[in-house]
């Protein structure tokens, strides 16, 4: 029994993000598949930090890592209510019941918007953007980071596998990214 537990723990550590310790892609897909197979209520929420690269490029990877850890910390508050995953870089997944989406992300987005400026130098935070030179030598302005959250639920449609529902969540994340500010976009299509 101890050997089984030890092997399972080692496998979970191998499948976790080295930075955040959250489960990675393999465990995320396994959890989605488990919920689909068992007919459990399901919402897959794809969380992305908009303009993350501007923080990393302007202030260095240490500040970028601090920002990623901050988002992981915000999401960890919901560990008992949701399954959390870190897909890598600035991408996270939250798996929960559909009715949990609105209350979870109301708190997350509010805290993120309030705290995001602290990851910037004071002058940049006050201006509301970073100014940098792009690869072509042109000056660019990058606004303070926001979150784009795409949500796919199994409320009004049937998903057969993790690939299918994650693709819809990613599509909704792209819709959220096309809008200004922090956004949560939920797929409401039926079918």
Quick recap:
It contains seven helices and seven strands, in the order H-H-E-H-H-E-E-H-H-E-E-E-H-E. It is an alpha+beta fold and 191 residues long.
Explained architecture:
By secondary structure, the chain is of the alpha+beta class. It has one domain (2-186): 2-Layer Sandwich (Alpha-Beta Plaits). Helices cover 46% and strands 22% of the residues. It contains seven helices and seven strands. It has helices at 2-14, 25-37, 52-59, 61-76, 101-115, 122-127, 162-177, and strands at residues 43-50, 83-88, 91-96, 129-133, 139-143, 146-153, 183-186. The strands form two sheets. A five-stranded mixed sheet has the order 2-3-1-6-7, with helices on both faces. Helix 3 packs across helix 4. It is elongated.
């Amino acid at each position: 029994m101890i050997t089984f537990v030890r092997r399972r723990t080692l496998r979970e550590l191998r499948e976790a993000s080295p930075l955040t310790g959250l489960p990675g892609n393999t465990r995320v897909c396994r959890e989605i598949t488990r919920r689909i197979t068992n007919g459990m209520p399901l919402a897959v929420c794809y969380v992305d930090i908009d303009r993350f690269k501007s923080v990393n490029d302007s202030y260095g990877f240490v500040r970028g890592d601090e920002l990623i850890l901050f988002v992981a910390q915000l999401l960890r508050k919901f560990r008992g209510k949701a399954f959390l995953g870190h897909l890598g870089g600035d991408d996270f997944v939250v798996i929960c019941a559909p009715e949990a989406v609105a209350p979870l992300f109301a708190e997350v987005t509010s805290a993120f918007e309030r705290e995001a400026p602290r990851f910037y130098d004071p002058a940049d935070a006050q201006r509301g953007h970073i100014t940098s030179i792009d690869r072509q030598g042109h000056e660019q302005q990058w606004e303070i980071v926001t979150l784009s959250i795409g949500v796919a639920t199994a409320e009004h449609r049937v998903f057969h596998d993790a690939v299918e529902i994650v693709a819809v969540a990613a599509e909704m994340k792209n819709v959220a990214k096309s809008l200004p500010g922090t956004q949560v976009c939920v797929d409401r299509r039926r079918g």
